[in-house]
Amino acid sequence: MNGIRKITISGCAIAVALLFLSSFSSCCSTRKVTTQPAPSGNVGEAPVELPKGKAFSFVQLADPQLGFISDNADQSADSALLARAIIKINSLRPDFVVFTGDHVNASTKAAQLECFKTLLGRIDRRVTCWLLPGNHDIGGGSTDAKVDRYIARYGYDRFSFTHKGCSFIGINTCIIKDANQAREQEQWEWLESELAKASDSRCTFVLGHHSFFLNSFTEATSYSNQLPEVREKYWNLFSSNGVDCVIAGHLHDNKFSRHQGIDMVTVGPVGRPLGKGYSGVAVWKVSEDGSHSYKYYSIEEFERLETL
Predict the structure, then answer these.
(1) Helices 76-92/110-120 angle, 10° precision
(2) Do β-strands 56-61 and 96-99 pair in parallel, antiparallel, or remain unpaired?
(3) Pick the residue with more confidence: 46 or 18?
(4) In 3D, which of 157, 158, 163 has the Cα closest to residue 94?
(5) Are 268 and 247 in contact (CB under 8 A)?
(6) HSE on the CB side for 199, CA within 13 Å?
(7) 140: how many CB neighbours lie within 10 A of its CB?
(8) Kind and range of the H or E element at 92?
(9) Using an 8 Å Cβ cutoff, are 63 and 269 in contact?
């Protein structure tokens, strides 16, 4: 668990103070987090659409899960890790940032929710942030009431946007995993429509919290993946619509697999790692020809980067 043992910060307030001291000018112009329900959208301003064919980079933050390290006693260690990542994000200025779920460990803990909101607001407002729900953000079961509570808090539970000729479609995988059939059907119809719109994109990404599979498309069902019939259903849709890559978190470790030419990438956590994982950040790059690549950096490695 490198990236955890070195933490000496006592609380979220000190983590925020570090962010303030590291980047005074950007903190003075931080965005406000929207709380207006919307089927799609973003926390800040939409990325500026530049000429198609340009190379760009973005950062994926999976599972900061504030409160997990201390089992909900406090969120000091987790918030310190996220604060360190944000400091570097503000320095490197990626095109945008995507949080792929589990922002907090307990969706009913006010201190965790407020700490995440505060840290999110410290990201330079010129860097757009997109958020997707994790199972810890919604709570077990993904009932309509819990999903509605998440949307009221963050503004949306899915998104779709284009950037430099590439399409990014974020979905709520919790309602798939928890079999909220009505919500999933409504999202499925929306997903079909958004994928059809992306038909001329030079690269198409689908993002979510849960991986559809980790090591093999035919692997057994577990807490960390989706049912075989779900994989089949969605992968047929992805394959027929030219999806290039599916991105997820949830595992608190790193995995890579591929099926029918589509990458399934699972990245490790900003916060507490599990298994052989470690705390870190994923940096994604899209080349001028539309090809994509990524590298998962430990928090310490990410802090040492001079450019993306």
Answers:
(1) 10
(2) parallel
(3) 18
(4) 163
(5) no
(6) 6
(7) 11
(8) helix 76-92
(9) yes
Distance spanning both ends of the chain, measured CA to CA: 25
How high is the mean pLDDT of the chain? 88
The helix/strand/coil state of 170 is: strand
pLDDT over 70 percentage in the chain: 83
Widest CA span of the chain, in angstroms? 50
Q: How far is CA 211 from the centre of its chain?
A: 12
Q: Residue 295 forms beta bridges with which residues?
A: 283
**At 172, phi and psi to the nearest 5?**
-85, 100
Tokens standing for residue 74: 């406090």
The two structure tokens encoding residue 261: 């030419």
d(CA 130, CA 94): 13
Token digits of residue 249: 């978190």
For residue 281, pLDDT over 70 is answered with yes
Distance CA 175, CA 70 (A): 28
Residues in Cβ contact with 32 at an 8 Å cutoff, skipping those fewer than 6 apart? 121
Count of positions (residues) in the chain: 308
Beta-strand pair 245-248/255-259: unpaired
Instruction: Name the band, by pLDDT with cuts 50, 70 and 90, for residue 12.
Output: confident
Quickly count: other Cβ atoms within 10 Å of residue 5's Cβ: 8
Predicted confidence at residue 248, as pLDDT, reads 98
In terms of Cα–Cα distance, which of 296, 254, 304, 261 is closest to 275?
Answer: 254
CA 268 – CA 266 distance, rounded (Å): 7
Contact by Cβ (8 Å): 44, 128: yes
Q: What's the rounded Cα separation, in Å, for the pair 250 and 153? A: 21
pLDDT at 165 over 90: yes
* CA pair distance 43, 227, nearest whole angstrom: 31
CA neighbor of 213 nearest in space, from 242, 159, 179, 250: 250
**Is the pTM of the predicted complex or chain greater than 0.85?**
yes
